Structures are given as C-alpha cells and as structure tokens.
Amino acid sequence: MQKEIRIGTRESQLALWQANLVKDLLTAQGYTAKLVLIKSEGDIDLVTPLYEIGVQGIFTKALDAALLNNRIDIAVHSLKDVPTQLPKNIVQAAVLERGPVRDLLVYKQDMAFLEQKDHTAHIATSSLRRKAQWLRRFPQHQIHNLRGNVNTRLQKLAAEPWDAAIFAAAGLERIHLRPERSVELDWMLPAPAQGAVTAVCREDDTFCREACAPLHHAETALCTQVERDFLRTLLGGCTTPISAYAYIRDNRLHFTGELSSLDGQTFLEAAKQVPVEAAADLGKTMAQDILFRGGDKIVAEIKHAK
Known about the structure:
Blueprint: E1 4-9, H1 13-28, E2 32-37, H2 41-44, H3 61-68, E3 74-78, E4 90-95, E5 103-107, E6 122-124, H4 128-137, E7 142-144, H5 150-159, E8 164-168, H6 169-174, E9 182-184, E10 197-202, H7 206-212, H8 218-233, E11 242-249, E12 252-260, E13 267-275, H9 282-305
Parallel strand pairs: 1-2, 1-3, 6-7, 6-8
Antiparallel strand pairs: 3-10, 4-10, 5-8, 5-9, 11-12, 12-13
Protein name: Hydroxymethylbilane synthase
Subunit structure: Monomer.
Organism: Chitinophaga japonensis (Flexibacter japonensis)
C-alpha cells in the first residue's frame, strides 16, 4: 500500500490554497495526500508588529516542529516567510513556479491623496520594507500597523479610518479577493522570494523528496535563491527593509536589490544582469557590494534603533 503523504499547513485561506495546490499536483502524479492543519505563532498574535516579535520563522516554526516530530511529511510555505537557513534535518523539496510578484495598494475611496502633497494620508502595512519605500515617496503620510491573514487585513482596512493598505498581489489574487479599488505598485521593489511557494520535508525522507521533484520549477528556484542569498548576506529579515527581485529573460538573469533605512530616506541599490549560468553567486555579490558602499552602517543603525 502506497504511503499517504501528510501535508502540513497553516489554517488561513491563502495557506490552504497553497497546500491544496501541492496536494493536487501530487495527486496528479499518482500519490495519495491529505492536509494537516497546524497553528503558527504568527497566526496567534495578530496585534504586535512582526518586527517586534522576532519574525524570522514565526510562520514556519510550528510546521518545522511538526515535521521533525513526524506529525506531517511535507510542510508548505510562502517562500518569503522561510528563514534563509533551514532547520537541521529539513530540506527544500520543491519550489513551485512563481505567481504574481508585485505589491498592491488597496484604497477605500479614490487615490486623490497620492496627489495632495500637504495631505497626511493614512496607509496600513506591517512590513518595514513597504513602509520604508512608501515614506521615501510620500514622507508626509502616516503608516499604521496591519496584521493578520489576508481576509482579516481587508476587514480591518474597511473598519479603520485609513485611506489604503498595501498587500502582496499573490495573496489577494490566488484566493480571488483582489478588490476593484486596487492598483499595482510597479515602483515598489518586492520582498525576496515574494510570490513563490515552497514544500519542505525531512532530509532522510527519500519518498517525499522524489514525490516533490516533478513540482520543482528550476527558473523560480534560481531567481528566489539569488534574492534570498542577497537577504542572507545582508543579515536581514523582515526586521530590516530589504528588497530584491530577480527574473530571467533571454537566458539572462536580471537582478535588483535594495537596503534601506527605516524611514526610507537613506538607501543603497544594486542592479546587474548576467548569463543564467553565471548567476549562482549574484545575490551574495550584490549584497557585498552594498555593504562595501555603506550598507554596513545602515544595518548597524537599524540594529541600534531596536
């Protein structure tokens, strides 16, 4: 009798969408799979800003523990939530083809506040990366903390006297919740690995590693690895405004990365394109370039501010 693969997931609608995607892909390969719901620390505390509660792995720790305790066989995550260093005995089994990468502005009435230079608009986001980039462009605006899953954040936006909130396009579009009053922020550089989904399993689980292998999308894996190498080399997480995006066109990998101060007014950017076969170390190289040009001082100031 074939082993039934237990897929661990958080309980949010988006997490369930991601886990069901993996389940359906495995089923199409002839495997039997079921979902196992696990509550994460990040789902329990919906008030404290992420950067105040040590966000590295906050959405993945409970699933990692369930994996190592053999309660589940595979854990499915948004790759941007996964620490750049996986826990011992856990490996990446697959990175699925990437979805929408950009951020969206969801607004309540209209977007006139973007043109009013002396107006203090109220924008909601819990991301320091989004906050820094927004304040660089609109320094007169006020940022409000917004936590919870996609549904909760949309509800809170409707209830609070705010003008707009910032969301990942992938999160809204995958579960068909993108409001009509929304616009893509094509000028905002995304978080490393935003829009990508990963499945991890125990290192010694040959069965699950082989089952997940056909789900792996090499182009997405390379691009997100370059972005995450950039993040890791800068010693950053969601507590540091770090942005990165890589894509492949005409067999060349195009990369842009940024390190910013908390208020967005000081920032360093690195951009380069290289042949795909020469891209393996690009994220690390670009981060080292930023550190050499003064990025180490920005990182030190952020750590001191905490």
